Amino acid sequence: xxxxxDASCRICRRENSKLFLKGxxxxxxxCSYDRRQTAPGAHGGRRGKPTEYGLMLREKQKxxxxxxxxxxxxxxxxxxAERQKGITGGNLLILLERRLDNIVFRLGxxxxxxxxxxxxxxxxxxxNGRKVDIPSYLVKSGDExxxxxxxxxxxxxxxxxxxxxxxxxxxxxxxxKEGFVGKLKDLPTRADISPTINEQLIVEFYSK
Length: 208
Description:
alpha+beta
């Protein structure tokens, strides 16, 4: 699978939006996007008027990159959302929020989704007492996500938990910081997810 290895802030500048790809380092004016918001490249300052297709593409890319997915993975989630009852765009965002790597990030066990994905892949977490090392695993309502006992001394996890108060924990999640365990109380609703995302543009992009 292709893996992006360039500077994360270039992605934020490309999408003209702060995506918090580096976690806590994106707060407090430390992110280079705060200082330079032009698109990357020699002619980055020349942002022409976007076309209708361009708006749809950029919105899709922004969400895809925010959750750290490749195109094939993102398309698979969209097709799954299409098959579900309800509004496709909202279904898509809820599915993305239910990914185990995202839950680990939201609970504060990791500073970014990239870091969370690495920790999950290395087997540091259990879901309902069972080891799960698949970042795309979909957590269900009532599931408990816990740091493996041997992993509770991992510096990345401890440092992330120390800083969890900075961004807070969503209301649909419950964190027991001392016990290194979190719970998905209820599935998130569209109102719980970033209002800056225009998911209808993503639906229109894939409908063309």
